[in-house]
Amino acid sequence: MYKFTNFAFMQFRFPHSHLLGTDQLTADDISVIFTLAEKQRKSIDSKQYPPVSTPGLRVVLAFFEDSTRTRVSFEKAAQRIGAECVVFSASGSSVSKGESLTDTMLTLEAMGTDVFVVRHREDGVIHDIANTVNASCINAGDGRSNHPTQALLDAFSLYRAGVDFRGFKVGILGDVKHSRVARSNVQLLQTLGAECFMYGPPELMPEDDVFKAVQQVGSINELVECTDAVIVLRIQKERMQETVLSSLSEYAEHYCLQPKHLQHKPDLHVLHPGPMNREIEIATAVADGPNSLILEQVRNGVAIRMALLNLLGEWH
Known about the structure:
35% of the residues lie in helices and 14% in strands. With 316 residues, the chain is α/β, with parallel strands linked by helices. The chain has two domains: 9-147 and 298-313, Aspartate/ornithine carbamoyltransferase (Rossmann fold); 162-292, Aspartate/ornithine carbamoyltransferase (Rossmann fold, 3-Layer(aba) Sandwich), CATH 3.40.50. The strands form two sheets. It has a five-stranded parallel β-sheet. Strands 2-1-3-4 form a four-stranded parallel β-sheet. It starts with 26 loop residues before the first helix and ends with a helix. The relative contact order is 0.16.
């Protein structure tokens, strides 16, 4: 197992006041987050929550794009550390009346906000917000650019499964081109010493620099054979400017991860960031099978987000 340093958190200040992308995190940063998240996960499992660690911390979840897992887990995370949490949805707000994003965020900050958790459909918006407000900002997904907390919880799930990341091999299957999860995972996993591979429809393979060290393979069988874990991705229709696939049934025939692919790899870890389209990109028997870490990812999402709110809360 990767040996993370055990920090005395009361004497340590996290070096970042924002979490905008996985590219800003060092192995030591990830060590801090994982060590604290492990403590939080144990408290969740035992239902023995520690004393309120961030009394008075004011958190606003500003979601300009739909979400279930990320939004609810951040809300639960804020509640469990004793923070005040407000959920803002663009639907039904003054955004629909034409208010600018800048004015919206400044208005929310003026009401009293220490940490913004922001999801937005446009690439790079979180950087503009962080440069505008005084509050800390956490990127909860921006366009197809980055989703750092998802990558952290994915790697943390592997860490808790006993993975030593040095030399570990991870495959990414599906719509890699439009996936912010894929970009964040590649950056984070490579920082930890893992090697990444990918497979999917040729038209859904990326060409940007984030993936320059990621090897593209020729089949699901090859991807499974050469890796220790596979992260399955859904088709990101909402980020496609034009239709690039002929049919979902044809996609499922060639790119759906099925039990037959795992026959010779009984120890392969299977992850999926959700939401899943069962029998399209992943078979139900795989999603609910012994190889799956999918529900562990959900559980660990709360612990990771508790840890991050704790760490960024120290700036306020």
